[in-house]
Amino acid sequence: MKSLNFFIVLLSSLSLATITKSQDPSFLYNSCSNDTTYTRNSTYQANLNLLLSSLLSNATRNNLDGFYNSSIGLDPDDVYGLFLCRGDVNKNACQNCVALAAKEAIQRCPVEKVVILWYDLCLLRCSNRAFFATMDQDPGEFLFKSDQNIADEPERFNRLVATTMNDTVTQATIATSGGKKFAVEEVYFTKSLNLYSLAQCTPDLSSSDCNRCLRIAISILPSCCSQKPGASILYPSCNVRYETFKFYNITTVAAKPPPPPPSPLTRPKEKGHVSIIVIVAIVIPIAVSMVLFCMGFSFLRRRAIKKRVSLPEKDDGDEISTVESLQFDLSSIEAATNNFSPDNKLGEGGFGEVYKGTLPHGQQIAVKRLSKYSGQGAAEFKNEVVLIAKLQHRNLVRLLGYCLQGAEKILIYEFVPNKSLDHFLFDPGKQGLLDWSIRYKIIGGIARGLLYLHQDSRLRIIHRDLKASNVLLDGEMNPRIADFGMAKIFGGDQSQGITNRIAGTFGYMSPEYAMHGQYSVKSDVYSFGVLILEIISGKKNSSFYQSDNGMDLLSYAWKHWTNGTALELMDASLGHSYSRNEIARCLHIALLCVQEDPKKRPTLTTIVLMLTSFSVTLPLPRKPAYCVQSRTDSSLPIIGLESDRSTSTSKPLSVNDMSITELYPR
Known about the structure:
It is a single chain. The protein is of the alpha+beta class and 666 residues long. It has four domains: 20-127, Gnk2 domain, C-X8-C-X2-C motif (Killer Toxin P4, Chain A); 141-254 and 304-309, Killer Toxin P4, Chain A, CATH 3.30.430; 320-414, Phosphorylase Kinase, domain 1 (2-Layer Sandwich), CATH 3.30.200; 421-660, Transferase(Phosphotransferase) domain 1 (Transferase(Phosphotransferase), domain 1, Orthogonal Bundle). The chain has 17 helices and 24 strands. The strands form seven sheets. The chain has a six-stranded antiparallel beta sheet with strand order 7-8-10-9-6-11, covered by helices on one side. Strands 1-4-5-3-2 form a five-stranded antiparallel beta sheet. The protein has a five-stranded antiparallel beta sheet with strand order 12-13-14-16-15, with helices on both faces. Residues 1-22, 255-274, 304-322 and 628-666 have low confidence and may be disordered.
């Protein structure tokens, strides 16, 4: 009997060692934002070191369930951080992962303030801004095994992944055990293959934010990882994963009831001796199988080649069904807006009306109710829903949900309290509220938002309708680019496209797009240049030529540039609250953006650098497109464009900023 006890102890030790080894953290990905950096040996670095030490010391506390957040220091040297361990790992594995992450955070991101490190067992995040209890999906990463696809019944496998991940997300959202928002699930696929899934949020998120984060994550799977035997989507606030092997520790996730106590009946000594032999004969094969399985799992995981992937070039026709969790009932929207009361109306655009609403729990929303007679049909509506759901940036408006019921097509956004830029910029009574420092901040924010669309997001996106009315201002007057109903998605190697149907707003369209239907990132650059001129002058481009100057805005700006009188373009309401050098530089950048040759226009990467570093030498701009001397010697070629290219109206062009819409699916 003693020998049997020794064998069991030895087996337990071997199993524990194997499982511990299998839970060594594996690095997945890191993000080090270079937008904000700190100086070595500074107060910020000292606070960061203290924070990392605090995170590590709290990684083994039994009452934390693998999650801890904290902040240290005072503005401007305050540091915020958290760690999140996978819901199935024990406290020792959690501590090991956090210790490794804290060490590698300094190595991988030596001077960056915004740092995120993902491992298979934990997440570590630090920043100079408060992000606790906030749903963030920027940055994100998408990983899958590139060495093989599912060979047996791939379509059924895809369907199984979809339904299983949906169930797992539901369980993670409602999970309350120990405060974790974590769930796993195992389902049968074939006799030799099961599917294992996992979903997890940071516990500080609300259930609704957790649900939204996870739903958006799994909506990516059909596009990026079809037929792959395993994939992960990593966001700062949540993550999902599925595999065809058991990658989590099921014993710590779903504890089985204890076995019944042994029978009190005594047996003869001979029969007891026989039972020991039987037990040993059963235990040894099971133990060997378990050890081999763990060793095989560890070996395969090391060999698994993960690769970063881009999101698809196009949205699949059925993709809107994957974001069903974002759908609102029409009745709830009607209640939130008091049945679309005129008192709640915020404005009206080319696609319909926008209302302010309040949800039952007090959250304010902006409700974009698309006109039944507007050009934006189901294709544009689906485009905007699926597109914005994937975009997360501080200079982009955030989509909260949608409603597609009967003839109603409604988009629900976060409420941005200060309305749109044109609400201030072109109103003589409110222009004074935009001093130069605010306008300069707005220009920089729009540039960073466009840079994200063009380069930093997982998609390359051309907005195609950038204008003052599509830039919203939050409570701190930070810009949020809105209205993606006309946006175009480019593939990884695609740099330009062409269309027979022109969409956008006259006065902001680049000449190659307005006349030939050719669009690219440089089309948005042109629109941005026009917008900079409007921000400097406080004048609307589409109506500027009606003034006493008898010129369009681009011609007027070019005149002052060539005459060396750039400050005469400046909005008179700015008074003396401006920087001469900043205004002259912004005018210079704007004229570079509106050059007729798209190749001569700078990219958004260069523009952001020009705006943030005065040491960068700017090239001389060439004469802008559509530049005329007066309204009498110009036919304004964009006027004829509407009847030639657009089917939205057959009337002569009136001077307004109404969007021209494609009437056919893209």
